[in-house]
């Protein structure tokens, strides 16, 4: 019995040593394939700082369209995928929800770094770099969901196939899901929009001094920055212009529309005006990088200082605001294309 135990122990020890000293090898699948993981992603270019992600490419006005290879345990060669732009993919389709047309991005708005995607040896992902031009950022449509870069794979080297799907009609359209038994993944409608560096979620404190139909002074300042009023009403109008749907009430306590436009220069100075009928606004401000010292989380934070007046519904309000950047609020998104 003791001898049998020793034999089993020796066998187990040999097996453990083999696992410890040698790498396990797994067989590849019958074939390797390349594809785009997502057919309708939304890429938001985030200008300025975003501590939740690495957005260094964004601040260079760049992004990357990625492809992947599957079916291999280890990619042992450089895989090259030919690509082309096919603007006709957008014809007759719109965004579900907004009902806006899916527009191919104008050629003046971007360039691609290459006409192929290379997935390097040892990697399973590779990409082509999109360089966004000044014309892109000068176009008001670029700040919202309008433009896509429609990319199609044309061929591949050092992989067996492209996942082109399996059609169940004679003349299928890539975007018509009903045309396919197996959906194609050889294309992507890469939607691109952007947010200004001044478009953030903020923590707000300050002072409002009222006269006219409402009088008095209101001080908004919690004991801790984290407890200050949360502001989510910013949106991008341009690279250096944002709109703020400022919380505003009339003398009866009813909410009214008060959209403020903040236009910045290259030094972070801004003017404050109104975009709402019946609301007159005038003032200025300044965005200061790391200007709010030892702020929330014990760190210096970006801050926007505003000094402005508002006249509405018989009320005159003089305000001094301190808006501390809380977070950018950019998240992963996808859209669903539907036929018009």
Automatic annotation (TrEMBL):
Keywords, alphabetical: Signal
Annotated Pfam families: BT_3987-like_N, DUF5627
Signal peptide from the UniProt entry: 1-18
Domain BT-3987-like N-terminal: 31-159
Keyword Signal: yes
Record-linked InterPro entries: BT_3987-like_N (IPR013728), DUF5627 (IPR040580)
DUF5627 domain mapped to chain residues: 197-329
Transmembrane segments: none
Record protein name field: DUF5627 domain-containing protein
